[in-house]
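Quick one, T. Sequence first:
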Amino acid sequence: MNQVVAIIPARAGSKRVPCKNLKTINGRSLVQLSIDRAKETSLIERIVVSSDDPVILKQAKDAGVERIHRPAPLCTDEASSMAVVKHAIREMDLHDEDELVLLQPTSPFRAAQDIDQAITLRRKTGAPFCISVKQVEEHPQWMYTIDGRGRIRPFLNSHRREARSQDFPALHIPNGAVYVGLVAALLEHETFFTTDTVALVMPPERSLDIDTPWQLELAHAWANHQKTRS
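Structure tokens:
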């Protein structure tokens, strides 16, 4: 019987937002919010926090979830998320048929239903991977580069400035909220992004990915807005 295991990667360091994973939204740290959402799902069976931060690891312990002490080489800015995933797979002794769900703490508005839907979509389609995406607002048809003389140049050769946005095909970008993959496929491809990956489209209000101080302020503003509406 395969397991569905959630991994929450939460190292101590962060360049643009110091101690980012411990920042709070409505009194809960980003790590705690990810644990909360994972616990609310109907499909996840194990929750594991991978970190080098004793405060984060204590929060995981207090929440009653598993912990992995991440080694220093996997806690640098250069360390890839896939290296962290592979380390977790080894530490947890996962099997090829197990399903791994990567939940980055920087997506505080991701819902439990988004996680369950991503797992279900991967299973239903038979795809090895499913990632969550959002529709882009700024279409590349309207994007420019700036040359050495400060002049703008269309980014695409097919540039159509006079066209309406609704005339362009919908484009999507990964929103960082949910990554689902079979362990065997992850070890083979070492990425969630393949030609067989399926996408779960999430709404913009649940797709905020905190990577800068401005995005953290935006998260606080949106959380406060939601409180006033409830």
